[in-house]
Amino acid sequence: MSVMVARKKVVRKWEKLPGRNTFCCDGRIMMARQKGIFYLTLFLILGTCALFFAFECRYLAVQLSPAIPVFAAVLFLFAMATLLRTSFSDPGVIPRALPDEAAFIEMEIEATNGTVPQGQRPPPRIKNFQINNQIVKLKYCYTCKIFRPPRASHCSICDNCVERFDHHCPWVGNCVGKRNYRYFYLFILSLSLLTIYIFTFNIVYVALKSLKIGFLNTLKETPGTYPSSLTFLTVLEVLICFFTLWSVVGLTGFHTFLVALNQTTNEDIKGSWTGKNRVQNPYSHGNIVKNCCEVLCGPLPPSVLDRRGILQQEDSTAQEGSCPRGPSAQEPPAAQGPGQAQEGHSVLSSQVPAPCASDAEVPREKQQTPGELPAASADAGRAEH
């Protein structure tokens, strides 16, 4: 016979979260689904640094100082740590409204706006919020069914509202928001320093070799045939660093400007505080040091997603085995021999909580001898009294 046993399957909340994100390590790592450019970022950083440590660092450590590869390694490790922290963390995603909450908000909006005549557009869903004696508008998100907090915006790529949304960065494979902006800034800052460092010492390496054997001989130097593999790799490093300098160093300068003003990329692109109205930024303290301390050194808010929280779901599964019979369904003792064991009893019969005698056993119980059933009924009656 088959026994239906209800088992509870543990389901984590990250498995049911809406939006277009991917999760790894049981919800500990959160990224965007489009990660191709992030892998390119890893390849460029790891490849360039590997070539530098394998070739130029050995020569420069002997000719100049052993501190050169040590400082390069510190910059490399710091840049990689901040990159992974930016890419693998929750940028500040705001949970969507539950169905009951969404229905209540919709009811509240309809009561506030009233009935809109047919053919007219409904008024925008906006709430006014005061910050530092200045009115800030909170916009309604039709996807998340919430009024977004100040400085939050909906990312069209990840399909989530992100608190203090700065921008979506494909190079790190994640949104940049309130919870990972400081790590993003430290990443591009350390990457700029690392790029300048490698580019500078590549030039120093070529200059030192040229002083000894000449520039042309340096280019033709073995190993390998002309053009030598060493020359090709050195030129490749210089080219990568040269083009990276223009982008990464420029990006670092732009974000340094934003940090000094306590402003986001999203606000700068939209002209939120520099438009025609010349509205003053309510989040700026009017002091560069205070703005930098708030953005880079302020307390980091915890994630509100609770990605690894547990959801319980019942999952019924069938297990093969025989059912134990109750006292009324057992064969009478007189019908068994003293050394015989009852057939059909399972070892795990005591673990089954509910009786499961099948309909096929009922006729056999009715075929008992006439004297046995009244005796069983009499015993049961005496037991009740």
TrEMBL record:
GO terms for biological process: protein targeting to membrane. One of its GO terms (cellular component) is endoplasmic reticulum membrane. The keyword Lipoprotein applies. The keyword Lipoprotein applies. GO terms for molecular function: protein-cysteine S-palmitoyltransferase activity. The chain crosses the membrane at residues 37-55, 67-84, 183-208, 228-261. This is Palmitoyltransferase. It comes from Climacteris rufus (rufous treecreeper). The lineage of its organism: Eukaryota, Metazoa, Chordata, Craniata, Vertebrata.
